[in-house]
Amino acid sequence: MIRHLVLFKLNEGVTRDEPRVVAGDAAFAALGDTIPELKYWQCGWNITERDIAYDYAIVSDVEDKDALQRYIAHPDHQAAAAQWRGFATWIIADLES
């Protein structure tokens, strides 16, 4: 099993209530129901007020590295990630268990 973690930081001046950010959140929220490789899917906004905190997170599980690559290449994932490129940066970690 691989746990795929992604943390997003909104770009300077971008707020989470902007229509493009709301659309990006909705696009990620829908992935849990559309990509069969996802065994677990959670995404949402950070709830703490700390300077070092990121703004948005995704936690997901896939079966193996092949499933991770299929998830990454899936057109719905690619479309959702493309939206976020316009207003955020992110970091990723993949943990094998």
Describe what you observe in this structure.
With 97 residues, the chain is of the alpha+beta class. The protein has one domain (2-55, 65-96): Alpha-Beta Plaits (2-Layer Sandwich). 37% of the residues lie in helices and 32% in strands. Strands 2-3-1-4 form a 4-stranded antiparallel beta sheet. The mean pLDDT is 97.
* Beta-strand proportion: 25-35%
Number of domains: 1
Task: Return the string of H and E elements.
Answer: EHEEHHE
Query: What is the correct CATH architecture?
Result: 2-Layer Sandwich
The radius of gyration computed from the alpha-carbon positions, rounded to a whole number of angstroms, is 13 Å
CATH topology: Alpha-Beta Plaits
Q: Helicity, in percent?
A: 25-40%
User: CATH class, anyone?
Assistant: Alpha Beta
| Main sheet summary | 4 strands, antiparallel
- The helix/strand class is alpha+beta
Distance between the termini: 5 Å
Give me the side-by-side strand order of the main sheet.
2-3-1-4
Keywords:
alpha+beta; 3 helices; 97 residues; four-stranded antiparallel β-sheet; single chain; Alpha-Beta Plaits
Summarize the structure.
The protein has 97 residues and is α+β, with helices and mostly antiparallel strands. It is built from 3 helices and 4 strands, in the order E-H-E-E-H-H-E. The chain has a 4-stranded antiparallel beta sheet with strand order 2-3-1-4.
Task: Compile the SSE list and pairings.
Elements (H helix, E strand, L loop, with lengths): L1 E9 L8 H16 L5 E6 L10 E7 L2 H9 L1 H11 L2 E9 L1
Antiparallel strand pairs: 1-3, 1-4, 2-3
Helix pairs in contact: 1-3
